[in-house]
Amino acid sequence: MAHGKGKGKGLHWEEFLRIAFPYASVCPQPIHLLIFMSESSIWNSLLEEARSVASKERILSNVLTEYLLERDSLGDALSWRLSSRLAKGSVSELELRELFQDCFSHSEDALAAVERDLLAVKERDPACNDFLSPFLYFKGFQALSAYRSAHYLWKAGRRDLALYLQSLIAVVYSVDIHPAAVIGKGILLDHATGFVAGETTVIDDDVSILHEVTLGGTGKARGDRHPKIRSGVLIGAGAKILGNVVVGEGARVGASSVVLADVPPHVSVAGVPSRVIGEVKERAPSLAMDHSLENLKEYEAGGGI
After folding, report:
1. Using CB atoms within 10 A of its CB, is residue 304 exposed (0-12), middle (13-18) or buried (19+)?
2. Cβ atoms 278, 298 nearer than 8 A
3. Whole-angstrom Cα distance, residue 212 to residue 289?
4. How many domains would you assign to the chain?
5. Which element (helix H / strand E) includes 189?
6. Spatial separation of the C-alpha atoms in residues 232 and 270, rounded to whole Å
7. Which of 16, 111, 263, 280 has the most C-beta neighbours closer than 10 Å?
8. Residues 247, 233 contacting (CB under 8 angstroms)
């Protein structure tokens, strides 16, 4: 692939992105593209990181061998890790493992989403410097990965089993995502504790969400009643977005805000109830992870809160 606009047969990388990602509102940069183009790169990196840690930490060597070094693929490894965390009651760890393996071996979308989620954590979380940490320890990544299996079951018509898996995820990770919710790729669920997403929630690609966020309804009415979060959105800790409202592409929702109406694209909202307090300069604040509002003096002074 050419990196310039010369007369060669290769495509300029921007032209390639328009073809490869025709619906992406946040285009990957060239350095990210190298990762997307190799399906095995994240898995190989995980294995390399696991071998490195195992050589230094004897106590962890058995853990790394069981969950990674003896596994055949990312989907297989993740199935072992999730089933060990979620096995409760009458459903055995083996049965859960086979359930996850079925999902990740038959759903290319689910596995691709897992890879993009891992990449999102490493790129956006300043406390994360590798792929191994979220794979082994981070509840946000693990809960989201388990949800993807529940969603797979829901779409396959196995709704009772999907709801059972949802209940396990809620108990173990304190994350409650309805299996019918539609969640895109490249999602950072940071810290994750207390995150709730209702049945008709839609979250597009490349969104970052902090802990204690609720994407909920406003009552007991049925039908399409939950938020729609567009690509590139950043949602601060404790924010509550309620009802069938749209948070526009590249918007930023301040911590502890209560959103009850549509949010235009590329603005910051904050307050109870929230209101527009400024424009967002970045195309995708979810990637920059900048929560600061220092240029918004009224908000600093408590206006609208």
Report:
1. middle
2. no
3. 17
4. 1
5. strand 188-189
6. 17
7. 263
8. yes
On whether residue 81 sits in a domain, the answer given is: no
Beta bridge partners of 279: 267
DSSP annotation of 27 = P
Check residues 162 and 40 and name the one with the higher pLDDT. Answer: 162
Give SS3 for 84: helix
- In angstroms, rounded to a whole number, what is the distance separating the alpha carbons of residues 124 and 287? 6
CA–CA separation, 188 and 286 (whole Å): 8
Q: For residue range 58-70, what is the model confidence (pLDDT) as tens digits?
A: 999 999 999 999 9
The per-residue pLDDT for 220 is 85
Structural domain for 218, as ranges: 198-305
Within a domain: 11: no
Confidence of residue 293 (pLDDT cuts 50, 70, 90): low
243, two tokens: 């009802």
State the Cα angle at 20 between 209 and 29, rounded to 5°.
55
DSSP state of 67: I
Could you count the other beta carbons within 10 Å of the beta carbon of residue 38? Answer: 10
The model's pTM is 0.84
User: What's the pLDDT at 40?
Assistant: 74
Instruction: Output the six-digit token pair for 246.
Output: 């749209």
Instruction: Express each pLDDT in 146-168 by its tens digit.
Output: 999 999 999 999 999 999 999 99
Helix 41-56 to helix 108-124 angle, to the nearest 10 degrees?
60
CA distance from start to end of the chain:
51
Candidates 183, 177, 182; CA nearest to 198 is 177
Q: Are 50 and 69 in contact (CB under 8 A)?
A: yes
- pLDDT, residue 190, reads 96
The reply to whether 33 falls in a domain is no
Query: In this structure, what is the dihedral angle of CA atoms 27, 192, 243, 269, given to the nearest 10 degrees?
Result: -60
Q: What is the mean pLDDT of residues 237-261?
A: 97
CATH code assigned at 302:
2.160.10.10
70 is a domain residue: no
